[in-house]
Amino acid sequence: MTPLDNQTLENSISPMSKDHLRSIGGWMRFIAIVYIIFSVLGILGAIAGIATNSMAGSEMLPAFAMLGGSIVFLILTGVALYLSVQMLQSANGFRAYAETNNVAMLEKGFVKHRTYLLLMGVLTIIMLILIVISLGTVAKFIPMIMSGALG
User: Fold this and answer.
1) How many Å apart are CA 16 and CA 33, to the nearest integer?
2) Neighbouring C-alpha atoms within 13 Å toward the C-beta of 131
3) Longest Cα pair distance anywhere in the chain, in angstroms?
4) pTM of the predicted structure, to 2 decimals
Protein backbone atom coordinates (compact mmCIF):
# COMPACT_ATOMS: atom_id res chain seq x y z
CA MET A 1 0.00 0.00 0.00
CA THR A 2 1.39 3.41 -0.99
CA PRO A 3 1.16 6.62 1.02
CA LEU A 4 -1.47 7.83 -1.45
CA ASP A 5 -3.60 4.75 -0.66
CA ASN A 6 -3.34 5.59 3.03
CA GLN A 7 -4.45 9.15 2.32
CA THR A 8 -7.38 7.87 0.26
CA LEU A 9 -8.47 5.54 3.05
CA GLU A 10 -8.51 8.48 5.42
CA ASN A 11 -10.83 10.36 3.03
CA SER A 12 -8.28 13.10 2.54
CA ILE A 13 -5.50 14.21 0.25
CA SER A 14 -1.97 15.26 1.04
CA PRO A 15 -1.26 18.70 2.49
CA MET A 16 0.68 19.55 -0.68
CA SER A 17 -2.34 18.67 -2.82
CA LYS A 18 -4.52 20.87 -0.62
CA ASP A 19 -2.06 23.73 -1.10
CA HIS A 20 -2.24 23.21 -4.86
CA LEU A 21 -6.05 23.18 -4.76
CA ARG A 22 -6.04 26.38 -2.71
CA SER A 23 -3.63 28.03 -5.15
CA ILE A 24 -5.48 26.81 -8.24
CA GLY A 25 -8.75 27.94 -6.70
CA GLY A 26 -7.33 31.39 -6.06
CA TRP A 27 -6.18 31.85 -9.65
CA MET A 28 -9.43 30.42 -11.03
CA ARG A 29 -11.34 32.82 -8.82
CA PHE A 30 -9.30 35.81 -10.03
CA ILE A 31 -9.76 34.88 -13.70
CA ALA A 32 -13.47 34.19 -13.23
CA ILE A 33 -14.10 37.53 -11.52
CA VAL A 34 -12.25 39.43 -14.25
CA TYR A 35 -14.25 37.63 -16.94
CA ILE A 36 -17.51 38.20 -15.08
CA ILE A 37 -16.77 41.93 -15.06
CA PHE A 38 -15.91 41.87 -18.78
CA SER A 39 -19.04 39.85 -19.53
CA VAL A 40 -21.33 42.20 -17.62
CA LEU A 41 -19.81 45.18 -19.42
CA GLY A 42 -20.25 43.34 -22.73
CA ILE A 43 -23.88 42.57 -21.94
CA LEU A 44 -24.52 46.21 -21.06
CA GLY A 45 -22.84 47.23 -24.32
CA ALA A 46 -24.92 44.75 -26.30
CA ILE A 47 -28.12 46.02 -24.70
CA ALA A 48 -27.09 49.60 -25.53
CA GLY A 49 -26.32 48.45 -29.06
CA ILE A 50 -29.73 46.86 -29.40
CA ALA A 51 -31.41 50.00 -28.07
CA THR A 52 -29.53 52.39 -30.36
CA ASN A 53 -28.79 50.32 -33.46
CA SER A 54 -32.29 49.00 -33.99
CA MET A 55 -33.36 52.46 -35.09
CA ALA A 56 -30.22 53.36 -36.99
CA GLY A 57 -28.84 52.11 -40.22
CA SER A 58 -26.73 53.10 -43.17
CA GLU A 59 -26.39 52.26 -46.83
CA MET A 60 -23.61 49.80 -46.03
CA LEU A 61 -25.24 48.12 -43.06
CA PRO A 62 -29.02 48.15 -42.62
CA ALA A 63 -30.58 48.46 -39.18
CA PHE A 64 -31.64 44.80 -39.04
CA ALA A 65 -28.03 43.69 -39.60
CA MET A 66 -26.78 45.97 -36.83
CA LEU A 67 -29.54 44.69 -34.55
CA GLY A 68 -28.68 41.09 -35.43
CA GLY A 69 -25.01 41.69 -34.63
CA SER A 70 -25.92 43.17 -31.26
CA ILE A 71 -28.16 40.20 -30.46
CA VAL A 72 -25.41 37.72 -31.40
CA PHE A 73 -22.96 39.66 -29.22
CA LEU A 74 -25.47 39.61 -26.35
CA ILE A 75 -25.79 35.83 -26.64
CA LEU A 76 -22.02 35.33 -26.77
CA THR A 77 -21.39 37.53 -23.75
CA GLY A 78 -24.19 35.72 -21.90
CA VAL A 79 -22.44 32.41 -22.58
CA ALA A 80 -19.13 33.91 -21.42
CA LEU A 81 -20.82 35.09 -18.21
CA TYR A 82 -22.28 31.63 -17.57
CA LEU A 83 -18.86 30.01 -18.12
CA SER A 84 -17.23 32.50 -15.77
CA VAL A 85 -19.77 31.76 -13.04
CA GLN A 86 -19.11 28.02 -13.48
CA MET A 87 -15.39 28.65 -13.06
CA LEU A 88 -15.97 30.80 -9.98
CA GLN A 89 -18.16 28.13 -8.37
CA SER A 90 -15.54 25.49 -9.16
CA ALA A 91 -12.82 27.62 -7.59
CA ASN A 92 -14.94 28.20 -4.50
CA GLY A 93 -15.50 24.45 -4.14
CA PHE A 94 -11.78 23.68 -4.43
CA ARG A 95 -10.79 26.36 -1.96
CA ALA A 96 -13.52 25.39 0.50
CA TYR A 97 -12.34 21.79 0.45
CA ALA A 98 -8.74 22.86 1.06
CA GLU A 99 -9.89 24.86 4.09
CA THR A 100 -12.53 22.55 5.61
CA ASN A 101 -11.83 19.00 4.37
CA ASN A 102 -15.48 18.81 3.32
CA VAL A 103 -15.48 16.28 0.46
CA ALA A 104 -18.85 17.57 -0.77
CA MET A 105 -17.16 20.90 -1.59
CA LEU A 106 -14.44 19.14 -3.59
CA GLU A 107 -17.11 17.22 -5.51
CA LYS A 108 -18.99 20.47 -6.15
CA GLY A 109 -15.80 21.98 -7.50
CA PHE A 110 -15.27 19.03 -9.84
CA VAL A 111 -18.90 19.05 -11.04
CA LYS A 112 -18.74 22.78 -11.85
CA HIS A 113 -15.33 22.35 -13.50
CA ARG A 114 -16.67 19.47 -15.59
CA THR A 115 -19.56 21.69 -16.77
CA TYR A 116 -17.11 24.46 -17.62
CA LEU A 117 -14.85 22.11 -19.61
CA LEU A 118 -17.79 20.46 -21.37
CA LEU A 119 -19.17 23.80 -22.55
CA MET A 120 -15.71 25.01 -23.58
CA GLY A 121 -15.27 21.78 -25.57
CA VAL A 122 -18.59 22.28 -27.37
CA LEU A 123 -17.71 25.91 -28.13
CA THR A 124 -14.29 24.83 -29.40
CA ILE A 125 -15.88 22.29 -31.76
CA ILE A 126 -18.28 24.96 -33.06
CA MET A 127 -15.36 27.36 -33.55
CA LEU A 128 -13.36 24.75 -35.47
CA ILE A 129 -16.34 24.06 -37.74
CA LEU A 130 -16.75 27.79 -38.42
CA ILE A 131 -13.03 28.09 -39.19
CA VAL A 132 -13.23 25.23 -41.69
CA ILE A 133 -16.30 26.81 -43.32
CA SER A 134 -14.53 30.20 -43.45
CA LEU A 135 -11.38 28.70 -44.97
CA GLY A 136 -13.50 26.85 -47.53
CA THR A 137 -15.27 30.08 -48.44
CA VAL A 138 -12.00 32.00 -48.76
CA ALA A 139 -10.47 29.18 -50.82
CA LYS A 140 -13.17 29.70 -53.46
CA PHE A 141 -12.02 33.27 -53.98
CA ILE A 142 -8.26 32.59 -54.18
CA PRO A 143 -8.25 32.00 -57.97
CA MET A 144 -10.20 35.23 -58.52
CA ILE A 145 -7.81 37.14 -56.23
CA MET A 146 -4.78 35.72 -57.99
CA SER A 147 -6.16 36.61 -61.43
CA GLY A 148 -7.01 40.15 -60.32
CA ALA A 149 -10.72 39.71 -61.04
CA LEU A 150 -11.74 41.17 -57.68
CA GLY A 151 -9.52 44.24 -57.92
Assistant:
1) 26
2) 6
3) 75
4) 0.75
